[in-house]
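[Q] Does anyone have a clean structure-token version of this?
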Amino acid sequence: MQADTKQFEPPLCFVLNGGSGRRDADAARDAIESAMRAAARRYHLFIIEDIDDLTATIQQAVDAAESENGAVVAVGGDGTINAVATAALGRRCCFGAIPQGTFNYFGRSLGIPEDIDAALQDLLHGQVTPVQVGLVNDRVFLVNASVGLYPQLLEDREAFKQRYGRSRFVALWSALVTACGDHRYLNLVLEQGSEQSELRTTTLFIGNNRLQLEQVGVEQAESVTQGQLAAIAVKPVGTLAMLWLAARGALGKLGEAENVTGFSFRSLSVSPRGLLRGNKHRKHRIKVAVDGEVMWLDTPLAFRVAPEPLQLIRQKTNDDTPHAFADNHKDVAA
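[A] Here you go.
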């Protein structure tokens, strides 16, 4: 009976972000090697030593996983998890995650432990579960994507982390400092099918993570479990009102605020107002935050639910009906 179990255990190709801190990376590597030896599980370690090697290292890991009918596993924060998940989704390769970031919304929302030893056991005994993925201009986001104030908040947060260290307290402190600063307003045109509307906002936030949306208290949180994405927009307000909104979000009551509007969708086009009245072929770039990483993308921004889910390995819960790895992986790799 033991032999039958072993044949369904895929080799695991770990992608570890070594640039996030040598001590943390060494501890993560030791934990992985110990857990794999104890489980007698085949595995490979791919270490990202420099950010310039990110894409190449992830590609090597996915190639190895694909060639051995295995799975690629991201070890790091939401940004690292996003990068590895993007490659896995593109190659229809099974995926695992060992969350090691500050907030870890992706892992926490799916019941993946934040403790690395517990997360490794979850992975080793996991089954494949399909997980919804969001896209903005075909860029993958697992947690959220946004324009406006939120990308600025992330840039400020990174600066604070560099100066004061990586913690949730530092992240919240930097958010308050950003909220007290000057806010640019965005004039946007939203299109859903044949319907068009205009929106003036400080930030447009697109969520794909029920836990994060529930924590701030918006009613659209449940929609991301029903094949949709959630849009949250903050109307133009002053500094005091912005701080009050931040406080309401911390208390889980943001959705009750009169200066906040929200809706759910499967596909949404977002353009700066005025672009549609001019040359439609003229490119306009806008700063977008995608799972904690800030980038510039061409408009119109096309937000949508990905046509195929991410095939995530995790332990079964009472709310899940995952398929056994071997049965599901045959379909994924086809």
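[Q] Thanks! Anything notable?
[A] Residues 22-39 form the longest helix (18 residues).
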